[in-house]
Amino acid sequence: MGRKKRKVSLNAFKIFFTSVKVYFLYLDKFVKYLMFPVFGQIFGLIALFTVAYLFTVNMTTLGEKIPFLLSERNLIITYLCCLAPFFVIFLKAFYEYLIAFSALNSVCYIITPKKKVQEITFDTHNEAIERRIFHYIVLLFLFTLISIILTVPVSWIFIPFFVLVFQVFALEQSAGARYSISRSVDLVKGHYIQTLIAILLVVIFTYIFIPELFVWAFNYFKITQYLMIPVEKFLSAMPIDFDSVNAMLKANMMPMTLEITECSKKIVDVTIYTIFLMFTLPLRCCTFTNLYAALDIDAIGRNAEEKEDKE
Q1: Where are the domains of the chain?
Q2: Three-state DSSP state, 189
Q3: Per residue in 19-29, pLDDT tens?
Q4: Helices (H), the chain
Q5: pTM of the full structure
Q6: What gap in Å lies between CA 142 and CA 165, rounded to an integer?
């Protein structure tokens, strides 16, 4: 006679708010860890656009002052050499952020809100992912394909099944790309509603509330106005005829008007939003790592009970 199946009590709210405690308890360490991956990407992109623009508008002047640049070949080589350092900075920061996407899961797995760990060796967790970099790249590729498919509204109901992919990869050292995906699906089965609630909490707090709160604060304390100044100067110097653009929009019956001030504010707001969204990555990782831990315990229990029933 088969034993009664154990039913694990899974509380998404408890998991999320426990993760919030962990996030703020280790906020200083998380911010320090993500400082270069976040600001390196922002700085790299800003520098790339700035250098590219300045080089383009001053190309004639540079050719007159530096005869070496009169050759098209030399001009292109010099142009690429000027862009290369900033492109490298951006790629390095982007790479480290992708590694952090998985490495933070193993970090969150070992820390607890009850007793603060004084030292976290982030490099060790990074190396654990980098040693399996080929499998990780394959996982990122497959996950990107799945994410593209899941942008179709009718497929949104399947999103919860793939939310633990990176937790499986980071915490199960032998896990490959395809196994991480299938394992995530298996773990979520039977706990779809609580997983969905955890996702909604993460979206509300890390994609809406926290980033938008900082965007509002920057606007309220008029910090945005100062950040807009260089952006406005940059847009004003660009060869864009906003009157022509607005006329084209009006001709196509598009109810919008582009102005330098509005564009500058939007660029600054999006940049602020993106920065604080990226800094909430540890909170997302903590939430889904704790969810994985709870579901993994449940999975182990179910497998043991099924084995006993067969015996």
Answers
A1: 12-310
A2: coil
A3: 999 999 999 99
A4: 12-25, 27-57, 59-65, 72-110, 122-130, 133-149, 165-171, 177-188, 192-202, 210-220, 223-237, 242-251, 260-279, 281-310
A5: 0.89
A6: 11
